[in-house]
Write a sequence for this structure.
């Protein structure tokens, strides 16, 4: 079954919308959630929206953990490189997911919790 350009676009947007969402309080989680519930109900779009949502929830939790770690004895000296690595991982997965969606492929984020089945 061939995917329509609209399905590919919605799936790619599910991965890239959190970039805008990071400027809102928890928009990085809300935008993929909105696509999951309000976007096209095709299996392809739903799978990409769920993967993006799982990734953003996981990365938000990891970032919160790093923030709490920075407040402890460990401090910013150790947390700063970890935060940069997390940022690189987030961007890498978002771009790779969007590119895979544009090609009509399924993409799985690395190092995430699968909370939304």
């Amino acid at each position: 079954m061939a995917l329509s350009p609209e399905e590919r676009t919605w799936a790619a947007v599910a991965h890239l919308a959190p970039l805008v969402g990071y400027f809102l309080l928890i928009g990085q989680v809300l935008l993929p959630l909105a696509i999951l519930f309000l976007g096209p109900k095709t299996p392809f779009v739903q799978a990409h929206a769920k993967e993006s949502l799982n990734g953003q929830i996981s990365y938000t939790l990891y970032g919160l953990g790093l923030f709490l770690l920075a407040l402890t004895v460990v401090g910013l000296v150790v947390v700063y490189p970890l935060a940069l690595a997390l940022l690189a991982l987030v961007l890498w997965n978002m771009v790779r997911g969007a590119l895979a969606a544009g090609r009509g492929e399924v993409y799985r984020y690395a190092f995430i919790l699968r909370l939304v089945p």
